Amino acid sequence: MKNSQNSAVQKESNLHTKRCLYCGQPEQLVWVHGHGQCAHCGTNVEECCRGESCFPQIDNSKA
User: Fold this and answer.
1) CA–CA separation, 24 and 4 (whole Å)
2) Which residues contact 43 (CB under 8 A, 6 or more apart)?
3) What own/partner pairs with CB < 8 Å and gap ≥ 24 does 30-36 have?
């Protein structure tokens, strides 16, 4: 690829990069005590559990 094509592909991939909603840095999660926090600013961005339950979902449609 030519340099201009490489640059265009890199810019396109940067548009689709997930970013921290608080500091804007490319998202890189660090898991601490069950929650995910931004590696750059330390903000909790993935709460632990988020309402999940310990009971598995039962699919009765296959009965």
Assistant:
1) 26
2) 20, 22, 23, 37
3) none
Residue 30 has which token pair?
């660090």
- Considering only CA atoms, which of 2, 1, 26 is closest in space to residue 13? 26
Higher pLDDT, 54 or 10: 54
Place of tokens 């309402």: 51
Per-residue model confidence (pLDDT) at position 51: 66
Query: What predicted TM-score, i.e. pTM, was given to this entire model?
Result: 0.52
Residue at 54: amino acid letter = C
Which has more confidence, 60 or 23?
23
Average pLDDT, the chain: 76
**Domain segments of the chain: what residues?**
19-47
The encoded tokens of residue 3 equal 């340099």
